[in-house]
Amino acid sequence: MADNINDIILRTPHGGTAMLPAGEFEGPVYITKPIRLVGKDTTIWAKRGSVIEVTAQGAAIEDLRVELTEGDVRDTAIAANYPVFVKNVEVQGGVKGFGAEDGFFDVPRTIELGTFAPDTENSFTMTVNVPAPTEIVCGTSGVTISPRRLETGRNEVGISVKGIGDHTVLYAELLFKSQFVRRIYLMGRADGSVSAVSGKCVYTAPERDFSAARSAVVTSETTANAPAMSSEPTTDVISVISPAPLYDMPLLELKMGQRVSLYQYIGTKCEIYFSCSKPSNIDIDPYVFMLDGNERSFGDSGLIFFGNESSERGEVRYFPNDGHVEIDFDKTDYRVQKIALAYSVYAGNYSNNFSLVRAPKISIVANGAERISFTMDRLTDETTAVAMEFYLYKGEWKLSAVGAGYRNGMAKLCNRYGIEVEE
To answer: What DSSP string describes 367-395?
Structure first.
C-alpha cells in the first residue's frame, strides 16, 4: 500500500484522530503523540515483538484487533509508557503498562474437545488464570459456559455442549473480556459411536501467585479504562460466519498486498468478475485452485476452470457464458484451507501476455452489488497471474490481494500446487 499506519499517525495532528482503513496491516506501530488511533475492521499484526508501542501521554486506541502471529501467547503485543484509553481492543498476546492487565492470562489460543456424543449433553472443564476480573462471552448455540464471570486468579470453568447433530464439526469462539478482549477457539466433533463426555479436563493452567494482583490499588486511569460488566446478553460475537449487513458498506478498493476479513463485506457467498481492455485475439480465463493446509490441490478435481466447471461439493463454480466465478464458503470441505484465484492469457505464444492488457480488474459482487475491487496494475510480461487468495485463518475466511504472476504460464502454477502438467 502507498500508506502504512505509521504514515497516517505522522500526518495526524496532536489531539487528532487517526482513522484507519479496513484490512490487515503489519506492525510495529508507534504512537508518539497524543492522538486517538481508531480502526474499522482493522487488524495490526507482527510475527514477534511489540505490535503497538505508545510513548506519549494522552493516547487512545479503539476498535482494533492486535495480533502476535508467532511466539508465546504471553509475549507483549501492546506496550505503553503512559496510561492509555482503551475501547474495544482485541489482543492476541500480552500487554505492558496497563496495571493488572500486565499479569498472566493463562488462556490457550485453541482448545480441542475431541469427539463427543451427538444430541445430548457433554461436559468439559478447564482451569485458567486471569490477572483481572474477566467476563466470558460465547454466542454459539449449544455451548454454555459457567461461570461467565471470573475473579482475579485461578478459575475453574465448565463447558457444556448439548444438541449438536451427529457428524457435525463444532467450531465456537469464546471472548474473555476485561480491559481488553482475548479470543479463544473451541473445536470438536459429534460422533454417534462414542458415549457422552462427563467432566473431561481439556486445559489446566500452571500454578501462579496472584496475591499481589488481588491487593493492588486500582488507579483512576485503570478504572477509566475498564469496561462495564453488563448483565445483559452480549450479541457482538461472530461464532458462526453469516451474511453481514452489507447494504451500507462502501466499495472497498484493495491495493496489492492488502488483506481483509471477508464476512463484513460479502457474507459467505460471492460472484467474481474480471474486466479489462485487451486485443480481440487474446482470451483470459479464470482458474481456481482449492488447496489444503500445505497449499496442495485435491488432485485434478481441486482445479476449477473451463474444463471442470464445478467442484464436487459445488462450493466453487465457473460460468462459461460470461467467465465469472462463484464461491460459496459455507459449502467448503473442512480440508480446504485456501482458495487461489488465477487468470491466464491464452493466445498460442508467450509474446501475448499481460503487458497488452490494460486495467485488469477483479470485482467481487455480493447481494447484487460490487463490494470489493482490485486492479492488478503491476503486471508486465506475465502470462498467468494469481489475482487473489482466500484463506481460512482461525475459522474465519480472509482475502489477500496478490496480483503477482508467472512468465511461463499456467503449467508453473499447476505444478506449484501439486497438479502435474508438462511445461
So the answer is: TTEEEEEEE-TT--S-SEEEEEEEEEETT
pTM: 0.55
Contact, 354 vs 382, CB < 8 A? yes
Q: Where are the beta strands (DSSP E) in 48-133?
A: 52-54, 60-68, 76-80, 85-92, 94-96, 110-116, 122-130
Q: Tens-of-pLDDT digits for all 423 residues of the chain?
A: 335 899 899 889 888 899 998 888 888 999 999 899 999 889 999 888 899 999 988 899 999 999 988 766 678 999 999 889 999 999 988 999 988 888 888 888 889 999 999 999 999 999 999 988 999 999 888 999 999 999 999 999 999 999 999 988 888 899 999 999 999 889 899 999 999 999 999 999 998 877 655 554 333 333 334 333 233 322 222 222 233 344 456 788 888 888 888 877 888 899 999 998 888 888 899 999 999 888 888 767 789 999 999 998 899 999 988 899 999 998 888 789 999 999 999 856 667 889 899 999 999 998 888 889 999 988 888 889 999 999 988 778 899 999 988 877 788 888 888 887 655
DSSP-assigned letters across all residues of 194-229: SPPP-SEEEEEPPP---HHHHHPPPPHHHHHHSPP-
Q: How far apart are CA 369 and CA 72, in angstroms?
A: 42
Identity of the residue numbered 37: L
Say how far apart CA 191 and CA 174 lie, in whole Å.
23
* Element containing residue 358 per DSSP (H, E): strand 358-366
DSSP string, 245-303: --TTPPPEEE-TT-EEESHHHHTTEEEEEEEEE--TT-EEEEEEEEE-TTS-BSSGGGE
